[in-house]
Amino acid sequence: MLTTFVIVYLALSMLIGVLAARHVHSAGDFVTAGRSLPFFIVVAMVFATWFGAEAVLGTPATFMSEDLGGLISDPFGAAFCLIFFGVFFARKLYAMNLMTIGDFYRQRYGRKVEVITAIAIALSYLGWVSAQVMALGVVFNVLSDGALSTEQGILIGAGVVFFYTVVGGMWSVALTTAFQMVVIVAGLIFIAFIASTMTGGVMPVVEHAVQHDKFNFWPELNAVAMLSFLSSFLTLAFGSIPQQDVFQRANASKSANIAVWATVIGGVIYLAFAVVPLFLSYSAQLINPELVARLLPENGDSILPELIKGHMPFYAQVIFYGALLAVIMSTASGTLLAPSVTLAENVFKGWLIKQPSDRQMLWLIRGVITVFTILVVVYTLWSLSHETGIHAMVEAAYKVTLVVAFVPLVAGLYWSRASTLGASLSIGMGVLVWIPLEFIMPEAEISPHFWGFLASIVGMIVGSYLKSAPKSCETTARSA
């Protein structure tokens, strides 16, 4: 019976996606929804896209195995990213009327930098989308009592998300996300209320966490620990700023003010609501500690689904799994569209098709979505076989953009002297420092990508002083 409700929910999401596709008449409609979305829809997209499988399954598992400090990258770094982007980037980028974030690098630094950063941005999504698809596989496996393997669930979930994303693009993402945000918020709050009745209220759960030092946040007061802490924070806080999904939501807004405030408020809501899954998962310590002891060492992502299925009434299970599917699918659709659009617009356009018509561009994007979905499924199945956790998959996704794309974006917007040589050296030095260290000391306390990030800053400064930007670029940077 529970599986039937899930099937109905999936069918409803697909129907909304198909209906939304009626608004798609051009590539611009498909990518930016005609830059016509109102405040509520943009807030819903920002929140629901970021409030994904890692927020409900991965982050709580990390909190239970570590402490609050283990969440410095997500939700703390992730929420900071959204707020920071809204305040310092949304208005400037919105005014440039770009199709993708990759277009900025072309206008500011030229075609070569555009292609490199676009590929880096697209690759960074592989882990994020795969984390959502992995979560769908876990959910289908739990719901079917093992009748569907996690691998089969991955294929089904990826197929559903692919269908309504490829049909309607940003319009499908926008309308399904608005519906899914309501389901997420109402569903998880209701389930948290039920869990609190089983634990004797909220405070017993909080007190248990305090007694077991789960609210430790700050690192030890030594240089290595503090740099490691900072590195984890910057991975999402800065690494996710030069991302197409964040830009795309702001860029689809009806006005610059909506782009700014919807992103900021979406980030605030994300941080505030992240507490709910933490409470739900940790309540399992009081409701069924044996379940936690059995699952946490190797399969912590399954604690919450197993708790709901084993200890809550049927109607609560329906609400929870509806909310969970909304969480996962809203993120998966947005993060599937973003890299596909980036690759189509900033890599394949002009290479596969020199000057595509609007119709050709639309089909090129849909073709890239198809190929990227296949890559996501392959990577997800590989990660499953290597027992990679959802939270780890998401955190790893932003290393590449932190090293490759963040510094050129900030310098290009805020430093008139930033030049193509500076961007090229920033990318080159960052990668040359980061990648070898991943092989030499992958488990170092201070992550290799942090040193790559510092090297990218040095590269931008050195290159831009060796050869500054031409006057036209300086004017663009100041006006942006």
List keywords for this structure.
mainly alpha, 480 residues, 2 domains, Sodium/glucose cotransporter, 0% strand
Describe the protein's architecture and organization.
By secondary structure, this protein is mainly alpha-helical. The protein has two domains: 2-392, Sodium/glucose cotransporter; 415-480, no CATH class. It contains 25 helices and no strands. The protein has helices at residues 2-20, 27-32, 39-50, 53-65, 72-88, 90-95, 101-109, 111-143, 150-199, 202-211, 223-237, 244-251, 256-273, 275-282, 284-287, 289-299, 303-311, 314-348, 358-385, 390-397, 399-404, 406-414, 420-440, 448-466, 471-479. The longest helix has 50 residues, at 150-199. It is globular, with a radius of gyration of 22 Å. The model has no long low-confidence stretch (mean pLDDT 88).
Low-pLDDT stretches are none
Structurally, the number of domains stands at 2
> Helix fraction?
over 70%
Distance between the termini: 55 Å
- The CATH topology of the largest domain: Sodium/glucose cotransporter
Largest sheet: none
The rough form would be described as globular
The percent range for strand residues is under 5%
CATH superfamily annotation of the largest domain: Sodium/glucose cotransporter
What is the gyration radius calculated from CA atoms? 22 Å
- What structural class do you assign from the helix and strand content? mainly alpha
Q: Please identify, by name, the CATH architecture of the largest domain.
A: Up-down Bundle
The helix-strand sequence is HHHHHHHHHHHHHHHHHHHHHHHHH
Integer average pLDDT? 88
Tally of contiguous helical segments: 25
Number of E strands = 0
CATH class of the largest domain: Mainly Alpha
